[in-house]
Amino acid sequence: MAEVIVNRVAQNATDAIIQNQSVLSSIQEMSYWKIFFTFISVVLVWDQVSYQIKKGSIAGPRFKFYPIIGPFLESLDPKFEEYKAKWDSGELSCVSIFHKFVVIASTRDLSRKILQAPKYVKPCVVDVAIKILRPSNWVFLDGKAHTDYRRSLNGLFTKAALAKYLPSQEKIMDKYIEKFVEFSKETDYEPRVFFHEMREILCALSLGSFCGDWITEDQVRGIADDYYLVTAALELVNFPIILPFTKTWYGKRTADAAMKIFENCAQMSKDYIAKGGEPKCVMDAWCKLMHDAKYKNDEDSRLFHREFSNKEISEAIFTFLFASQDASSSLACWLFQIVADRPDVLQKIREEQLAVRNNDMNTELTIDLIEKMEYTSMVVKETLRYRPPVLMVPYVVKNNFPVTPSYTAPKGAMLISTLYPSLHDPEVYDDPEEFIPERWVEGSKANDNKKNWLVFGCGPHVCLGQTYVLITFAALLGKFALHTEFEHKVTPLSEKIKVFATIFPKDDLFMSFKKRDPITGEVTE
Ligand code: HEM
Question: Whose CA is nearest to atom 7 of ligand 1?
Answer without folding.
Answer: 456
